[in-house]
Amino acid sequence: MKKYDSLSRLLHLFLAAGITTQMFVSLVMITPKPGRIPNNWYSVHETLGIVLFAILVVYWLRAVLKTIRTGDPLMLFPWFSAARLGALGKDIGATLADAVRFRLPPDGDDIRPLPAAIQGLGLLIGLFLGLTGTVLALTITPGVALSPILHDIKELHEAFGPLMWGYLAIHPTLAIIHHLAGHKTLNQMFGREV
To answer: Structure pTM?
Structure first.
């Protein structure tokens, strides 16, 4: 069984807890606008967002450096490799064939292209939200209208929020389904029986 190293597990835990908290805080925060003062939840969202952005940057740098060091393909990003895109296409086909038979793909030690690519998309969404949120946190002045470019950044930040909600609904749900089916998905990430 492939287990993740301690730093990967710690980063995953921080990201899972932090991003989930961020998303729920976004439901109760009041954002600043001319004539409207933000509430304390907005400050929590800003601060936690900057911390999460830093964690995501560390995660990405670590993944890229590990890929360069080991020569293993970066499964999180199959988009720029014909071979990895081909493997992803085959895995999607196999997963759909299993799904129409109401089966899960077989469990194994190898990292499968589809779950890895989905994880990569989630990380890209998080990185984009973290980047745009950090830009906004460092440039917004309460009581002052946003410049056109900052307004566009804010709109993009808000538009990507539902994508993260979708990811947060799908990723842990599938991990639990696989675990209940006897796969070792959660054991691989957390290193113990759960």
So the answer is: 0.86
